[in-house]
Structure formats: structure tokens, C-alpha cells
Amino acid sequence: MPIKRVAVLFSGSGSNLEALLEKLHNKVFNGTKIEIALTITNKKDAGGIKRSQKFGIEPELIEHKDFDSREEFDEALVRKIKKENIDLTVLAGFMRILTPVFTNQIKAINLHPSLLPLFKGANAIKESFESNEPRAGVTVHWVSEELDSGEIIAQKSFEKEKKMSFEKFKEKIHKIEHEILPETVIKLLCEKMN
Ligand code: GRF
């Protein structure tokens, strides 16, 4: 049975990492097994560390402050990912801007909490909530040199409700994230080649 090895990079609470672990780790889809073979974080206090450990996966800590440049940090990421023979890298709340050292060498997808190309960058949820846009949602896209600008793979959207609180809005975004990211990984790695 083919096994596809996935790396997940995170910087924060790791709720998307947990969704991937719960829904995909060591599970078989269309005759292909998905293994979350590697998790990496750049933050030693990231909440996702405990979530990874809960599944028996000790995250690699690669802290950007230990490197003299973005490129050297990215090179360390690339080395680790290559060493683990990873088929697909998933940025699940990895809050680092990656240089071509990474984007030219690693096949990676990113989760972004807006309907790209609207609201790129780190404040997408708030900007999307405060905008006049009638709809909001989540995007999964290929990672390219330009931030939040790679080819879009999947999007899920919903109609914004006038009286919806920001808390409720964030909850809805994260709920969609926890669905669309695992679904997209399965599609990319396990879709029957017709
Ligand atoms: C998610 O909203 C993701 O879209 C954004 O960072 C957040 C990560 O959340 N890039 P978590 O760490 O997966 O809970």
C-alpha cells in the first residue's frame, strides 16, 4: 500500500494540526495511507506542541532567532523536510514569511483564513470581518515566492451575517479550516488517478 508522508509546520495553537492528525494520521483513503511523519514549529511555547505530542509525534523546534538570516532558517527547514522524505508539506498557521530557499525546494500548501486574493497577510480574519464583502471564507493554496499568492487549490465560503459577533465569525472560519485542510490533503495525495 502506498504511504504518503506529510510534514506540518505550525507556530500557534495548532488546532489545524490537530484536525490533520485526527482526520488523516495513519488513515487510508482510496488505497493510500497518509502519515503525518513530521511536525515542525518555530515557537517553543506553541500550543500545537502538546497536540502533536498527544499523537506521539515529538515536534522539531527550529527557532528563527537561532539563525543569522531568513535564508539560513529556511535552509534548516528544507534540510529537515528533505531528510524525512516528505511528499507534501502543510503550513497550518506557520507565521513566517518563507524565502525562495524554501519555496523553490519544498512542495507546500498553505491555509489562509480569507477568500484570496482578498485580505492577504496576518490580519485576514479581522479585515475580512470588518470589510463590506458579503461573503467570507478560507483558502488553501500552493506556497509560492509571493506571500499568500500561490495557485488556489480550494476555497470554502459563507454568507456574512450582519449581527454576527467577531467571536462567532472566527469560530465559523476555524470550523471551515478544520474541514477544508484535511479534505484538500486527501485530494492532493489520495485522489484516484483516473
Ligand atoms: C489559522 O487561522 C490559519 O489560517 C492562520 O493561523 C491560524 C492557525 O490556527 N494562518 P491554529 O494554530 O491552527 O489553531
Tell me the CATH superfamily: Formyl transferase, N-terminal domain
Kindly state the mean pLDDT as a whole number?
97
Distance between the termini: 18 Å
Q: Which CATH top level class fits?
A: Alpha Beta
Number of domains: 1
Rg over CA atoms, rounded to whole Å, is 16 Å
* Secondary-structure element order, N to C: EHEEHEHEHEHEEH
Q: Give me the count of strands.
A: 8
Uncertain spans: none
Provide the β-strand percentage band.
15-25%
Oligomeric assembly? single chain
Q: Assign the structural class, choosing from mainly alpha, mainly beta, alpha/beta, alpha+beta, or little secondary structure.
A: alpha/beta
Question: Helix and strand layout, with pairings?
Answer:
Blueprint: E1 3-10, H1 15-24, E2 27-29, E3 32-41, H2 48-54, E4 60-61, H3 70-83, E5 88-91, H4 100-103, E6 108-112, H5 124-130, E7 135-142, E8 152-159, H6 166-190
Parallel strand pairs: 1-3, 1-5, 3-4, 5-6
Antiparallel strand pairs: 2-3, 6-7, 7-8
This protein binds 5-O-phosphono-beta-D-ribofuranosylamine.
Residues 10, 12-17, 48, 92-93, 111-113, 177 line the site of 5-O-phosphono-beta-D-ribofuranosylamine.
Report on this structure.
The protein is of the alpha/beta class and 194 residues long. The chain has one domain: Rossmann fold, CATH 3.40.50. Strands 1, 2, 3, 4, 5, 6, 7 and 8 form an eight-stranded mixed β-sheet that branches. Helix 1 runs parallel beside helix 6. The longest helix has 25 residues. It is globular and about 50 Å long. The two termini are 18 Å apart. 5-O-phosphono-beta-D-ribofuranosylamine binds next to helix 1 and strand 6.
